[in-house]
């Protein structure tokens, strides 16, 4: 703890602070905030060098001294969740700060590009859903009034050194309007299930590349990434811009984990090494900033979209650019404490890069957290490929998370293809047998046998498990003994 404490002092000396009289707290600390339960609580700020700082919160009293640079930090003991409003008091000879209406519960950070930024009041600018009530998002936006859900919206700005936020807010049409819809529905589902306060920090930027959300140290510390890095750019792309202003100033504010919905820009502009390398570096970089290598990181696999049919692009993308990107996203699941949701069933228009079903995205992310982080007995993943076996002219596929395997439209499973002896892929006849899928083909299968499932940017497959969660795309080749 002493070592971490010293590291935090060094790191925090670089962060901008929210000024109040002659003593300050970082801008992430405001009225109406949610403090993370059952974790040490970091509080930091600035005061005249050498000045004694007193902090009180609930039953705790703590004191520290501002260092030679005027930086101070206190680490309070973990506290239990409470819906009863509390006060945090920070005082010294230079002044006193009283923050009110504070709750204790679960805190999460939601980040990414436009599909995470897609806000609670921005839905009129996007297509209405065709499969459900077209006014679901509007109704939820108008009805949102839970006193135990709090939000902090981080504005899209790379100017200056101060975290661009107006602070923590209680729910209202005004405060909720710019907040991530997927993030809000995650918070709502989490709060309803756990019956504790939930704080959501919404920090996203439409059209942004993953490189802009990664700390510079991630490029400097990786040989794969360092090859394209020079003078703050990666193959000509500016790096760390959004991280520096919209993420780093939040650390080490105590929180449970991260939600990530990004990648569309990187499908279109694939500079340097693969996305999997970059996402792994981002996860590692964010966890280092919070001094916790086990912080949950849950992300969204991109939805089907016709990247190969975009008008006006100088270089058209191949039909399998998106499936290969899906594969890179899924490969990151071997990083501990990660999880991925699949949304290939949530698209009405393959030429619309913004699927409207954000309440379902938020719910599926919440299922991941409830299962993996909070230990709830809920199904949090759709079927994922496990193994294949070839018997004569049949291919038997085994899946994990396949209880109640079915199709969402009641038809035979679709989007399965087998490679033939002419090196082409033919649509395979697929049949569900128990919790497995059996494939067969009218043409001779090439050996070794190769299977593709949901392997094009237009694929909208129908396979799901009993919980209605869709199967993830994959490709696999028989292992010849």
TrEMBL record:
Signal peptide: 1-21
Source organism superkingdom: Bacteria
Keywords attached to this entry: Hydrolase, Signal
GO terms for biological process, alphabetical: carbohydrate metabolic process
Pfam family, one: SASA
Residue ranges annotated for the Sialate O-acetylesterase domain, each copy included: 106-354
UniProt-recorded Gene Ontology molecular function terms: sialate O-acetylesterase activity
InterPro entries named among the record's database cross-references: SASA, SGNH_hydro_sf, SIAE
Name recorded for this polypeptide: Sialate O-acetylesterase domain-containing protein
Species whose genome carries this gene: Xylanibacter rarus
